[in-house]
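Fold this sequence, please.
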Amino acid sequence: MDSAAPDPSVEALLHALLPARVVLHSHADALVALMNQTNGQSAVEELYGDRVIVVPYVMPGFDLARLAADLWQRLSSSRTEGMVLLNHGLFTLGDTAEEAYSRHIEFIDMAEEHSAFASSAISPRLDSQDPIPGDPLELAHFRAEASRIVGRAMIVSQSSSPRALAFAGAPDVAVTATRGPATPDHVIRTKRIPLIGRDLRTYAAEYEEYFTQNSSRRGTEPAALDPAPRVVLDPEWGLVTLGGSVAESSIAADIYLHTMDIIDAAERQGGYRALPAGDIFDVEYWELEQAKLRLSKSAKRFQGEVALVTGAASGIGRACAEVLLAQGAAVIGLDLNADVSETFSCTGWLGIQADVSSIDQLRAAIDRGVRRFGGIDIMVPAAGIFAKSAPIAALEDEAWLRSFNVNTTAVARLFALAHPYLAMAPNGGRVVMIASKNVAAPGPGASAYSASKTAAAQLARVAALEWAPDGIRVNLVHPDAVFDTGLWTPELLAERASKYGMTEAEYKRRNLLHLEITSRDVGLAVSELCSATFRATTGANVPIDGGNERVV
């Protein structure tokens, strides 16, 4: 009765027509492996006897509900405790949830024992320090081509599961894995079959042929979905999944890790068999299933895109990452602070502890991020340090060198490492450099910070010149007096306020507009510069300071 509530399952009518207070339904791997064989029906009947009613495959919805209700009325007895819907799943009934659940577990245990089924779907991942095979640049190129076929930016994720690598490298994978999905409703997440290898063009052509051959089955011809795969099995990469968001790619990976176990278990017995292509097409283009996808899609501006943000655990970097995540981007966040891995808890966040002044750590972090999300579309160099204030005459070499190492050299290395990925970004690469008001108006006692930030700003201007032919936009923002950052310690704030003869509150609002500038103000400006609103802007310098007489 609540129009804002989630839609009920398409099986709600079937559940309601079965004569029990509780109906429990699953697609248990061991049972799906048993029924997805040439002799699947007889194997199920032999295993469970009259404790279940076996229902032949009928497309989910009203027809299936009517058939199941009819079979229950005609065939059930005092021993009947559930139903097995071929190529679909297991239903158990009970007067209580506990009764339905205990029956469910018993039936699944029976299927597992029958086939010596052992799930590896929750398989160990490779440690983050272990190398994952394949060149991340090749993965990014694959993502660029897939995004072109789909018509929008896509997330492409390489699984770190050794199990997936072994399955994808099996000599018969092109035969067993292309017989169809474990259950028909997986098709909306995985497409009917995976791509074996990396030939996207051939896969797309074959999908279009599949659509042409089956489109008349629905009466009125439906609109064709994009012809790109959602699951890729490659002997070098292992398992790669595609999605319009990180969540979609993760769902496809989760489903296919289970599918591997189902295929292998069925192959050990009577041989894996799926439903014919036409039956799978009916579900893939069923209006109720497509409605699920439409509801899950988002109009967020950076959906399917990947951002790399340094200094992402606090201050301006954190605010930039937060805004980009909220607007649909997946974000690779780098920071020296180990807490960066837990800065955000959403699926689109990958926090990596890394010292940006180490080129090896930068390279490893980019490698890991690209394998997780597929590429880099947006880059926000926000990491920086502010050396202890000192006049030039008292400046220490260590402070000077450290400032340039972090504020300038690290940025130059980051630019060099990220450029190949930005050049392949489906919507064009974008860089927004977090510079400083000190570039235009340095302050006394801040020579190391001012000089190193100015050098980095000049580097960004050169990048804008060099990268324009690649479709990469490079812009700069110049924050000033953003006090909710790690650069501003209480001691530094008190020192600066005293220097200008102000209270701390007055010092925070010393700009022309008398505003207190926050990290979020900077994050919002950065996201706007990355948007299509500024598609024709590169090399711009945008102050975020409330207005400064020395800059204006």
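The radius of gyration is 29 Å. Residues 25 and 91 are 5 Å apart (CA to CA).
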